[in-house]
Design a protein that fits this description.
mainly beta; 8 helices; 7-stranded mixed sheet; 44 strands
């Protein structure tokens, strides 16, 4: 390449002598560059970590590429402290997380935008532009009129903060680092350097703006130059796409070295015999000589590239051809390509490498001025197309060195290649979804003292892209000051809403008739059935409205809807809620994904609202605590009877149940779990009773006189409630005996 260029330039400026000197110097340069040392131009690399070394080269990107950047500015890590407790008597846990603000330079020319961003190999920014962790991203495209970043200017001072015009960079503000070991992760960026794909010609025009570039339309998805000179960059490209240089009209011309279609050519005149004193004896008699190199060892070429189908991971495609051990020549091409395009380049390179060199030394006495080094010509002594590699003025004519050109299409291939990029497991790109939140108190399960409310939060999202939410307590319930109470974690609760209303049924029998359809908040979650033995061990406990029930059967209906049947009703003392069901009430499966809230932080459950804020929430989600007294409320008594005495009196009796005792064990007395046994018996609603009694035994005798003194129209039933330490149970209704 240097021989062609310097020969032509030397001839233009120094005549025949200048051309000879130029040819000599050019051959020496070509030998030095191609034969004597390795070209240190842009090379294909694995996707390495970004650098932060002062003086590091910033790359040129074309088309669409994935590359690491260079950190050019950063703040100290900011520490965040969060204390959470699992409940009374359990240790509180203080966790520390960190965030950081920093800037990363990605390209030394203006770009069109930034696509996805990977952090430690996982997606930090998705295709839709959403960050997968907390923080803010700002992109500076590198145009000549861009302003300094507001955060950097605030931290460094307006007069000390450059705008980095001509340099594309991104700024992360307060990026959460918990997912990356509380350190700045290794980042790689999908750089949209141009609005469309690039080409070999576009790269050549960018790095050599004064050159005339033509016939270099080989399309590339992207290309990167991170080191070396313009000549080195072209030499790397020429390994896969042969390039020729010439001088036309005093300007450098760059074009494809091999014809890829119909080309115009000039027929040279017949060869001229040399002077008898010529030093070029090989062309003395006939004026020309031909030299064919021996058939080279058949070599198979491979192209390493960035595969766009595999998130720009390096790939290797081999050309079609015969190969022998140690015979593969690998071309390191720092370009983003499809597998088919890479194999096309590899096959073309394999054919060129396997073709023997065929050259002709050809002397003419006159020459068309348009025939410059790099021109395609025909000669009368043989067929085919020949490229002028170099020329030399001599005393008896012009000696041309001609190189045979392959026939049109032989180098580029005549059909589209079919190639497989290989198996690839891409990083998941799930969009953040809004938080679905439900909070409620559950009956005491017998663990601990049972003297504080057991309040739980169930949180979920529509997809696995939901990554949790911060939890806060609004103690006034009116949008006032918020108190941090921890987070939901990333595990999604299985929750949703009922489509119909769950019918009423007896809590004493297995309900085989009732069904209800439930639509889950996340359509990718499933519900599974359970056997009767599993139900008795506590499987499939769900909170529907205010009732806790267990289901044996779960059948998918479609679109996240499940039909539940085979019920054990009124579990945990919630039989009072069996007849309260309505359409579209909350459904929550009670399992380990629930988050228990610290009673010391949430205040009075009756007035507190729980607030959740996640990455997918455009506004905070605030809900009240449902059934706030469920933990401290005693269970209502059962098996109530009323017997009329001979004297007209009523003898009432009932069986006690206690908080924390979900199972009735034969031969074991139910524990009291209260400070004292106290009962309240009323005629009519306990909120507006006609008569009221207090007793310390699970029995009461109502005299005939008291019955006779009831006013006309008074209710004809008794309501029995257990009075606990903190609350009264739901009433047990006992109708007057006949």
């Amino acid at each position: 390449m240097a021989t062609l260029l310097l020969t032509a330039v030397g001839t233009v400026f120094g005549g025949p002598l200048g051309g000879a000197i130029g040819a000599l110097v050019g051959r020496q340069i070509d030998t030095a560059i191609i034969g004597g040392r390795r070209v240190e131009g842009p090379r294909l690399k694995d996707l390495t970590v970004q650098t932060s070394s002062y003086g590091s080269a910033l790359p040129l990107h074309f088309g669409k590429m994935r590359a690491a950047g260079s950190v050019i500015w950063a703040t100290e890590l900011v520490e965040h402290k969060d204390t959470a407790s699992s409940g009374k008597g359990r240790p509180s846990v203080t966790s520390y997380t960190y965030s950081s603000s920093f800037a990363v330079a990605v390209a030394s020319r203006p770009i069109a935008g930034i696509g996805r961003i990977w952090a430690d190999g996982n997606l930090l920014r998705g295709a839709s532009g959403d960050l997968k962790v907390g923080g803010t991203l700002r992109i500076h495209l590198g145009h000549g009129d861009q302003d300094a970043d507001s955060l950097m200017a605030q931290a460094e001072g307006v007069m000390r903060c450059p705008a980095y015009r001509g340099l594309a960079y991104v700024v992360f503000e307060d990026l959460a680092l918990a997912d990356y070991g509380n350190r700045i992760p290794s980042l790689t960026f999908e750089i949209l350097a141009d609005t469309t794909n690039t080409s070999v010609g576009a790269v050549a025009r960018e790095i050599l703006p004064d050159a005339m570039v033509s016939n270099l339309d080989r399309s590339l998805v992207g290309f990167s130059i991170d080191q070396g000179s313009a000549g080195d960059a072209l030499a790397v490209i020429a390994d896969a796409v042969p390039i020729a240089c010439a001088v036309s009209g005093g300007a450098l011309a760059i074009h494809a070295a091999e014809p890829t279609g119909p080309v115009s050519s000039v027929l040279l005149p017949g060869p001229a015999a040399a002077h008898k004193d010529s030093q070029t004896s090989e062309v003395k008699a006939s004026g020309w000589s031909r030299k064919r190199e021996p058939l080279p060892r058949v070599r198979q070429c491979g192209v390493r590239y960035y595969d766009v189908a595999r998130d720009y991971q390096p790939g290797l495609q081999r050309g079609i051809g015969r190969s022998e051990q140690g015979d593969l020549q690998v071309i390191e091409l720092p370009a983003a390509l499809t597998a088919a395009d890479a194999q096309t380049l590899a096959s073309s390179a394999s054919r060129l490498a396997a073709r023997p060199a065929d050259t002709i030394s050809y002397r003419v006495t006159e020459i068309d001025p348009a025939i410059a080094p790099g021109a395609i010509v025909r000669i009368p002594i043989t067929s085919g197309l020949w490229r002028v590699a170099q020329w030399e003025w001599q005393q008896d004519g012009v000696l041309l060195s001609l190189t045979a050109c392959p026939s049109s299409g032989a180098a580029a291939g005549s059909s589209a290649a079919v190639a497989d990029p290989g198996r690839f497991n891409p990083a998941s790109d799930l969009a953040h979804t809004p938080t679905v939140l439900s909070t409620f108190a559950l009956p005491w399960d017998g663990i601990g003292s049972g003297t504080t409310p057991a309040v739980f939060a169930a949180a979920s999202g529509a997809s696995a892209g939901w990554t949790g939410a911060a939890l806060l307590a609004d103690l006034g319930g009116d949008g006032g000051a918020l108190t941090s109470i921890g987070s939901t974690g990333r595990s999604r609760a299985r929750m949703g809403r009922t489509i119909g209303a769950l019918p009423a049924a007896s809590p004493l029998l297995l309900d085989r008739q009732s069904t209800v359809d439930v639509v889950l908040a996340a359509t990718d979650q499933v519900l599974v059935g359970a056997s009767l033995a599993q139900l008795l061990q506590g499987a499939n406990r769900a909170r529907i409205g205010n009732e806790i029930a267990q289901f044996a059967n779960a059948a998918p209906v479609g679109s996240g809807v499940w039909r539940l049947s085979g019920w054990l009703r009124g579990r945990g003392g919630t039989e009072w809620a069996i007849g309260t069901h309505v359409v579209n009430e909350p459904f929550v499966l009670i399992e380990d994904t629930l988050v228990q809230l610290d009673p010391a932080l949430i205040g009075d459950p009756a007035t507190t609202h729980i607030v959740a804020v996640g990455l997918g929430d455009t506004a905070a989600v605030s809900v009240p605590i449902a059934d706030p007294g469920a933990t401290l409320r005693p269970f209502s008594p059962v098996r109530g009877t009323a017997i009329r005495g001979a004297d007209g009196s009523f003898g009432l009796a009932w069986v006690r149940r206690a908080r924390g005792a979900w199972l009735w064990l034969d031969g074991v007395d139910t524990p009291l779990n209260e400070e004292a046994e106290r009962w309240e018996v009323t005629i009519g609603d306990p909120a507006a009773p006609v008569l009221r009694w207090q007793t310390t035994a699970a029995a009461l005798t109502v005299t005939a006189a008291q019955i006779a003194g009831l006013p006309t129209g008074a209710p004809r039933y008794f309501a029995v409630r257990q009075i606990g330490q903190n609350a009264a149970s739901m009433p047990l209704r006992i109708d007057f005996p006949a």
